[in-house]
Write the structure tokens for this entry.
Amino acid sequence: MTKLLHYIGLVILTTALSGCGFQLRDNYQLPAAMQAVSVQAPAFSEFSQVLQRRLTLAGAELVDSAQADMTIEVLSDQLDRRTLSLSQSGQVAEYEMIYTVNYQIIQQGSEPQKLQVEVYRDYQDDPNFALAKTREREVLIREMRDDAARQLLRQTIAQLSE
């Protein structure tokens, strides 16, 4: 009897979650135009590698541009920072890091669509712990690249769905 109640509870929970639109994170429904994708980026682009991994995880097949239904061309990616606060001694205590990716979607028979993705993070600097803060900044930049790739993928799917 208790197994039956557990089963019924599981069915009700599953139905409620699927009924409210719940989806696992990074579970994308790729449009047909994204089944075979080509990624073009500047040489040695770390963002390009992250984007290719994200596309593969989403179920897209990475092909060269001659075979692709769609090409994502990464025009530029850059990391900027601006000062948010200063310490009492006048040294920078906190930065806002801004990671920007400019890209365009190229599909056969249509004009390229230029788009942009921006990711923001706050970073507290402490010159007393320079090595630790350097590693923290590297991890933060890696996470920003990953977030930018996720946003790019969502933005591209939204553009193709319109």
User: Anything to note?
Assistant: The chain has a mean pLDDT of 85. The first helix runs from residue 2 to 19. The radius of gyration is 21 Å. The first strand starts at residue 36 and ends at 40.
